[in-house]
Recover the amino acids of this structure.
């Protein structure tokens, strides 16, 4: 299937990258993920803006998801225009030039003592 | 981006603040959070009503989320008109004068034995 | 607020009550919950149907949620027309005569080693 | 109830099958599940396509969910056209010829140290 599905704007109000982790990295590094799915025929050009509780938003973080691919983006790997600070509440808005689907997760299922959360992000009607 | 996104009314049927916690506070205090994102140009004036299983609702709890900011509100920090009782089932309705996006979480990812849940709250069509 | 919010039909495809638990009951009994919120002026008369993988659906399970109240219903407490079997995949459809909001959870946050999941259920357009 | 509810196309951007597990199988095998509910009068003929980060999609995986039944499909049990690789990011699109409801879960609630996640999948408007 190469049909475009989803929305061009998504919001994730929850965001928090813990400042510490247990276990070998990168597999067991505590992380937040935006899982992005682009089922369409064209690459998705994506801009992410990060919102904070006490200062102006930062962004755009720019990335691309090729046609018919998924990208499980770890927020802690974003570097430009600046790293997302640890131990800090944030939120994100993801804008694409083609429809995509976004799911928010925090996960590490390979250690018995890990914790998981996940939810489909909030799709904004165009 | 300063576009308003989201809805003005949100519901979270699940709510429960455990009466006990493990670990140093406030980082490891068991807590429920409503993560609120206001991407618009105007402050969001918000009223929260708390529903119970066996008595009349309590509220409004009043708070403000500035323009282009996120607030990760811990329900256990609400004080007025009264604290939310511990070990008690509750639900909440969040009403804003401008569109916002709300995600419900219970989380502590910094202790190996913590548990997490999260979901985008239920948006009510205006 | 006494405004009716939500939908009259909700679906929860995931359901599974573990056959064993750790810790004193009922607090630490493994359980699945449908958190139901009725913000309106009238009691919600609710019928739940349980679907299985290999036999006909069972129901209706009948319950009431008063006006302006929440009910965090544990599926393992349903008795009539029959108990939901343990260690068995099931799904549920919840039908109300007035709009309600439903969130699905499996939770026990009072033991360090508990696990949690939660999602707003799937609302069916009338 | 034999009313058809749901949508014909669903997306789950998050997918990851851990390469290792703890505990006796199959109960404690780490697994990802698509919980599918078909409340209608007709069997659901379903095709699943799996998307990856770095190669073409694989599928369709073909399955059937009978009328008025639920199927809690474990992705790690899919064999044809090929097994889903472990320790690999993937996403899925589920297409049915009749309306269904889909919930994504990763769960094992019978071991104290297990972790859980769940969310209603993303429904695509026809």
């Amino acid at each position: 299937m190469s049909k475009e599905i989803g929305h061009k704007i998504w919001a994730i109000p929850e965001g928090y990258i813990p400042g510490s982790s247990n276990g070998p990295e990168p597999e067991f590094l505590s992380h937040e993920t935006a899982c992005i799915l682009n089922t369409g025929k064209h690459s998705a050009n994506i801009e992410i803006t990060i919102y904070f509780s006490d200062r102006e938003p930062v962004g755009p973080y720019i990335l691309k998801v090729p046609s018919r691919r998924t990208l499980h983006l770890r927020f802690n790997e974003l570097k430009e225009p600046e790293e997302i600070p640890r131990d800090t509440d944030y939120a994100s808005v993801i804008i694409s030039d083609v429809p995509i689907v976004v799911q928010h997760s925090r996960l590490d299922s390979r250690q018995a003592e890990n914790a998981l959360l996940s939810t489909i992000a909030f799709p904004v009607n165009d």
In short: The mean pLDDT of chain B is 88.
